[in-house]
Write a structure and sequence with these properties.
Rossmann fold; single chain; alpha/beta; 5-stranded parallel beta sheet; about 20% strand
């Protein structure tokens, strides 16, 4: 039984693979993409429970994708975690003011990410 569907969008293959591996091991169904344009397409098509978005990606940035998700009533229930190397206060503020549910900076703890996903999706 899967715990929910998570979209992972990161142009860094190692990070994308690590996040996908950890979430799948925790029982989530994961769809992984490597750019913002594809992330937005997949979010609209699959309507995942949660999206983990890198902020800096080719095409649309994670913030652009987040902005699109937040303006689409059909995606109102989609939770979003921004996963990024941008750790300055101004970047964190921009992420939350754009509508992120959570913000995790790289380098990050995969275990912490799994816990935060679980908290947002509402499992245990």
């Amino acid at each position: 039984m899967t715990q929910g569907m998570v979209l992972v969008a990161d142009d860094d293959v190692d990070i994308k693979d690590l996040v996908t591996f950890k979430l799948e091991n925790a029982g989530y169904s994961v769809v992984a993409v490597s750019d913002g344009d594809e992330a937005l397409r997949q979010v609209r098509e699959l309507q995942p429970d949660l999206a983990v978005l890198d902020v800096m990606m080719p095409g649309l940035s994670g913030l652009d994708v987040l902005r699109e998700i937040r303006t689409d009533e059909g995606l109102a229930g989609t939770k979003v975690i921004l996963l990024t190397a941008r750790a300055r206060d101004v970047d964190v503020d921009a992420g939350f003011s754009t509508g992120a549910d959570d913000y995790l900076t790289k380098p990050f703890s995969p275990r912490e990410l799994v816990h935060r996903v679980g908290a947002l999706i509402g499992r245990g």
